[in-house]
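User: Can you model how copper (II) ion sits in this protein?
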Amino acid sequence: MNIRAAVLEQFGQPLNVTEVELGEPRAGEVLVRLRACGVCHTDLYTASGADPSGYAPTVLGHEGAGVVERVGEGVASVVPGDQVVTLFSPQCRECVHCASPDTNLCLAIREQQNKGYLPDGTTRLSRAGEPIRHFMGTSTFAEYTVMPEIALARISPEADPERACLFACGLSTGLGAAINTAKVQAGSTCVVFGAGMVGLGAVAGCRLQGADRIIAVDLSQRRLELARGQGATDAWIAGPDTVQRILTETGGFGADYTFEATGLVSVMRQAVEAARMGWGLCTVVGVAGKGETLEVVPRLLITGRRVCGSSFGGVKGRDQVPELVQLYLGGRLDVDPFISHRIGLDEVNRGFELMERQDGIRSVITFD
Ligand code: CU
Ligand code: ZN
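Assistant: Here's the modeled complex, given as C-alpha cells:
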C-alpha cells in the first residue's frame, strides 16, 4: 500500500513528507494505523546526523499509538481493532533477559533493529523498488507502520491516543526509573535533575511511590512549574551550588534517590554527589553523547552511594506499558500538561523547531 511518511533523506536536512510503499505484514508482524505520535529528541538527534549509528533514508518516529489493522501469520497477542502503543524496546517473553525480572533489555531482535531492519533482515518500507530502513523498529512518523508483534503493547481502548503515545518513550522512561529501577521507597527524599518529559515522569513516579520530598532542578521556570504539577515539593533553578544546597537541606547527607534526566555528564556528576552517604542511589536516565565519560570520585561509592542506569525505565513494555497507561486512565497521573502542541504529519519539521527552541514538552502529531 502507499502511505504518507516523514522520510529522513539526508542528515541535517528537513524531513521529507512524501509517499512511500509499505508491504504487508509477514509472519510475526502487524500492520498498525497510527493515530498519534510524539516528536522526541532521539528523532531529532538522528536527523541531525550527530548519531554515528544513524542511517538514511529512513522513516523516523518512535512514540506511536495506533490501531491494529491486519496481522501476519502466527500473530496471537493482538487482533485487528486493538489499540496499541509502539515499543522501540520490545519484549519477546522468551529470551534470557525477558525471563529475568532484573532487566527489560530484550535480546530477540536487537541486531536487526539497530541496523534498520525488521527481524527477518528486510524492510517493508520502500520507494520505487529501493528499500527504506525502519527507525528504532517503529517508524511511526507515518500513516501506517509494520512492526513485530513483540514490539506492540496492547492498551485499553479507552485511552486517548494523543495521551497514550507519550507512554511509548519519555514518560514511561521517567516513571519506570522511579518505580522499577530505583524502586523509590515511601517517605524518602528524591532529587530529579532535568524537568523535560523524562524528568517530569520521574517526578510523577517518585510521587506515586510515596516520596516525602521531591526536589526538581531545571534551568527553566516554566518546566519547574510543570514539575510542581507532577508532585515536586521543591523546584529549584539549577546552578553550580545545587549539590551544596541539597546537602545543606538534608542535614549534610544528601538525598535518598537522585535522578539524572538531562543527558549532560556534568549534571550526572552532580546527581552522584547529591546522593546520600550510606545508601543514596543515583539513577542515570539521560543519554549522554557518544564517547562522553562520567567522572566519579571512588570515595563517594566506598561510602555507600550507588550509581545505576535505566533504559526505557526498566519497563517491560508489553506487560507494563498497559499498566502505566492505566495510571492516567485512573486519574492518578495528569498527562495533559505534557502535550504542548498538536500538529499534522506535514508539520513534523515544525515539531523539531519547537523542540530546538525548548518550546513546551511534547509536540504530538495527530493523524485522524
Ligand atoms: Cu523518544
Ligand atoms: Zn526478549
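A couple of observations from the model: The first helix runs from residue 41 to 48. The chain is about 25% helix and 25% strand.
User: Helpful, thanks.
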